[in-house]
Design brief:
6 copies of one chain form a homohexamer. The first copy, chain A, is an alpha+beta fold and 239 residues long. The first copy, chain A, has helices at 79-82, 87-101, 106-109, 127-148, 179-182, 213-238; strands at residues 16-20, 28-34, 37-47, 60-67, 112-122, 161-169, 172-175, 185-194, 199-206. In chain A, strands 1-2-3-5-4 form a 5-stranded mixed sheet. In chain A, strands 7-6-8-9 form a 4-stranded antiparallel sheet, with helices on both faces. Chains in contact: A-B, A-D, B-C, C-F, D-E, E-F.
Chain lengths: 239, 239, 239, 239, 239, 239
């Protein structure tokens, strides 16, 4: 039987903490922690939308992901110093944005924009899934703020959304991989799931050998279980 | 019953053409066409590997995807003129690279590098899947060249790989979406499959509403069927 | 007597092929080949002009030249990856733009813009002259399209234009140099000529020793002969 | 008499908190708070020095300052997205680096480098002075780590260092300005002081009218008092 | 007793030359020389202000500092070639702009902008202080031009401004350091002073050991003396 | 008969001044003036060559051209601020480099590099031809320096080189165009000529209508006359 270093069950999340309103700046914010992974999520609500949305009567939600240089074990050069954003950063920013847009009714948002900044303060695997999970909380708080301030009449949020990583490590499918398991995984999958249990994104990648249909199904089962747990934690943080 | 504009069956590919050795430059090349989508794939084989692989005894395979400015209906600014590569370009380049590495045994490649350039000359949906499918053919030709020139003793290729898009349009799952169907799709999925029928990548995205487990399964069935057809076309092009 | 590797006469062009409408995208396009040099020329016609031309009643014609990374014998890094456009690319883009503007009556074009994209798919010397020659064909097709679509009442094109390289190799002046001759040339000249036989650009450079007035005259004779031949091929392609 | 909004005395610091080892990543780190200003300071200790120091037997200490996009009241574009670092960021990074180097004996550091990352999570005036004050603590912890791990035999730190802002607001000199006072200040000064009470940097700027010698002296008195208080807080945090 | 290489007294300036209207381009210009340091200062007066000042009724003054690649003993790469401006350049440009704004009444300037370009042709220490001193002269000439051309009714200049470096070399405070003294200085200070003898900027930096209050006072005395001398030279150049 | 504003003959140069050793920095330098056009040319001689020349036993000569922001009638943004070098700058830098390399025997230069910086202080037409003419003088002085310092045994300079602009203005060919004539020219040509009267570069461009063979010949006659005059002035400056 496979035993995980931290003695967790295969379908168990790491200790997850969501601290809402950790920042005073931002219309909504939270500090989200999946084990040692720690992400500061801040929502900026602004009236007005990008040019290509003007006159549409609809709003826009977007996200920017970044990592502090010493979030990881060894220091990485800042992307501002390099003068360009890497492919991985772009990819994750786009994923977070799409995931949140899937649960927002843009016409109810009106011509307003919400930017979610997800800054990884410390990274130990699962930074993109923690970001999505925390960004949802920051988004919900920003919407709450906008309603309290009479900018929005009704909430444009139509469902909750969270995300988790799953993977096959040493032949065994397991939930919520820290860095140490992530690098050893043959298959790595990030799954974004709504509160109702439907899929927003499924991104599975064979890092070692290709994976078959049965393995895919086992991984999806684990992810649905993990996201159901996260949904409860989001609700608790917002209540 | 849903009828497609081009009268194709729901599980049918567009006319696919693979013209091997379309270019004289490059150790391997092909022009791949999925309907009106037309991608020039060129493999550059060079002795030596990037610094972080030196001394490992292993090779490296990577890819760069790009689109000509007027590949699409209206002209896009060149990324060289903008001075930076967009998120979408980065994301697709990384996907192509990962997909090909999944079927190459890096230790058999020795300390050699293969770069796959996938330049979209004309775009009508499915440019990333056409790129992967064509890049495999260019890669195989470059390996053939290296064996003929005694740089490689045996082929490091352990399986074939191809890719196809599937999506749910107006509630109906269908295979290989051209641009016109792609923009209308609620769910859009790109699937990368080996010749043996196992998965290398599964990337499903809810563009409209989230999708459920049954829909996911129908899409995977279609994709496996499409990739099996592409595998045959790749074999024909290489024989 | 000097014999050329491909047994051509000193005043003879390489086999030249112009395939009009090679692309479906673009208001005009052609694939032009000078021997192994192969350039895809696409014209994008858009209503409106750059800000500094607005209100002038006049149009604008500009060009962008680029080379695929593996157009040449060894792979070059993409300019989009480098994050900047090199001096040579800039210089050739500007030359193509000026050459085409010389045969367009900007007031008859009205406040419309035409961008010519010249993408070198394969390079074997003479890429800038092939680009100008092909860009003219793409431009003419775009104008034809604009007249058919009642955007233009009359053609703003006042003459045809083509270009050819000439050079002194091993002391002998010769026409249309492939890469192998180009690198050995002492003097290298690119000449842009209208259908009426007048000069638009004359760019002669001493790569080895300086050249005298007689040599200059011999080179100009060759260039005028070559461009007269290209003019015929352009007409045939457009008829 | 001038009363400050938060009822502080003119020579009183805002509530200052220094939380050492707030991060697990980094050889030293602290979260430093001056009122609502909150900066995460992390020290990365690496063996080896930049090229221009190699073979000198000496080490190097440098710093990078940055602000999260929503540290402030309204969101700023990320410098990584802009593709370049602004003048203010450069200026502050250089100031922090110089300040810390003033208290390190580079020959005792040996050929080792310490990078101090100061990331402003929330900004309410005084971010550069909080950064220097916190960076010293992170530096001291990193040196402690290096001694515990036998990389350094003796501490290269020769004094402590802290910094504070002072300014003339409505004609009155005062200590440690929050944003609201800072924008109203006629003269603004940042002073970096060692634990022994000598100056490392004195940067005074007339934002409104120029200032005279007496005013300069009053500001320096306040700064020396404030830095003496900060020195005590640094000692407490490190003990 | 300390003897300076050029036998100057400790409180003596290097030979200073200000040649007004050295350039025909520019609404005001001068070539300023502090010993071998030689800076071309040019003022560009334009009607209109940056967007964030529009409608304020106020003007704007800003500066850009740069150095020719071979201003110094060995050649430096151009910042235009590097593709970015270094921290030092940014810092000095900002300092020059602030210094000049301190002596301009923005409401009397009306919605007009003045840009001061300070290009260092030859550098031998003190380039920033020579730039400020010369930029003031160029500014005054540009204001004179604007009044002669009836763009301004009255002068917005409320005082003169000049700047000088002071430092402690081998334990001795001295005025106006050339490069050779600057690199040996323990403490280095740049002081910007108005014609009335009040401070606009005081920037003191301990390069070696920290400095105490007495040393600071001695340096300020020297700087006030030096700037009084420069004020006379500015007046002479403008009369 | 055409009369020029400055009453010059059609084949007459503007007043040309060459001040050798205008700068102390640089192994060679001069300030060259063609009328109001004023360029500072500085040669930097360094031992060693770029990587691609190492081991060849040959040297390298290259050039960088730039313009101060207010060299012209209205201010241009700095290329360092834009973050990239424009096409025109690139083109002229390359032209200057090629022109000088044509008169240098690279094997006699040994593995040494000379960089020519041509910084336009004031621009009134003909900046590229003044740059080439002045750069030759700076180069010759740098070679003189290297011989005096025993770095070179014999001079690698095999001929002198100068350049001049010619053009057809209002139907009349004329020499050395200032800005005011340049913008009105139908045909504009820059010609680079050796001291022996042979061509290094001929760059003719039809700005208005195309030009014929007779016009080309008249322009070349003028250019040869003008460069012969410049050659005399270069000799005088160097003696």
């Amino acid at each position: 039987m496979t035993t995980r270093k931290d003695l967790r069950g295969l379908d168990e999340l790491r200790p997850v903490t969501i601290t809402p309103r950790w920042q005073e700046a931002g219309e909504g914010s939270c500090l989200v922690e999946f084990g040692k992974t720690r992400v500061l999520c801040t929502a900026s609500f602004t009236e007005g939308v990008p040019r290509w949305k003007q006159g549409s009567g609809e709003g826009w939600v977007t996200a920017e992901y970044a990592m502090l240089p010493r979030a990881t074990d060894s220091r990485n050069q800042r992307e501002s110093v390099k003068g360009k954003i890497g492919g991985r950063t772009h990819e994750i920013s786009r994923l977070i944005g799409r995931s949140l847009r899937a649960v927002v009714d843009m016409s109810k948002l009106g011509e307003n924009a919400i930017v979610l900044d997800c800054d990884v303060l410390q990274a130990d695997g699962g930074t993109r899934t923690a970001s999505i999970t925390g960004a949802y909380v920051a988004l919900a708080l920003a919407v709450e703020w906008a309603m309290k301030n009479k900018i929005l009449k009704e909430s444009p949020i139509i469902d909750t959304v969270s995300a988790i990583s799953v993977g096959i490590v040493d032949g065994t499918p397991m939930l919520d991989l820290p860095y140490e398991e992530d690098v050893r995984a043959d298959t790595d999958m990030n799954v974004v799931v709504t509160g109702s249990g439907t899929f927003v994104e499924v991104q599975g990648t064979a890092e070692g050998g290709a994976f078959n249909r049965d393995e895919l199904n086992e991984l999806l089962d684990l992810a649905l279980k993990g996201c159901a747990d996260l949904t409860e934690l989001q609700k608790a943080a917002l209540s």
